[in-house]
Amino acid sequence: EALTMVCAQVMGNHVAITVGGSNGHFELNVFKPLIANALLHSLRLLGDASGSFEKKCVRGIEANKERISKLLNESLMLVTALNPKIGYDNAAAVAKKAHKEGLTLKEAALKLGVLTEEEFHQFVVPEKMIGPSDD
């Protein structure tokens, strides 16, 4: 809630800065004090709020790597890696079966007979799908 209030204030300051910038009708914009004040206020708010949020909320948080790995490897979205290998229709059938029966993609692909276990592991490599690549 505190961060949301900070964001609301910063957005309001942004509007003030925009209005100040658009209403400066002469070469020397007489709204510069308003613009500077709003900008500096936003910078102070964001800096203070970020530091407080890190100290009181973020510090000490640790990722549950086992759960992340489990969710990643069981994600039905990984089926996109199969499209170029088995075609859209077969990939869609795998995803539908996995979803309807509560199976993993691998289990569904094996039951449908569209891939072997080795082929599945060759084609579905989440690590290659979650970041930039040279391909």
TrEMBL record:
Any GO BP: malate metabolic process
First and last residue of the signal peptide: none
The protein's enzyme class: lyase
Domain of life: Eukaryota
Its EC number(s): 4.2.1.2
Keywords: Lyase
GO molecular function: fumarate hydratase activity
GO cellular component terms attached to this protein's record: mitochondrion
InterPro entries registered for this protein in UniProt: Fum_hydII, Fumarase_C_C, L-Aspartase-like
Protein name per UniProt: Fumarate hydratase
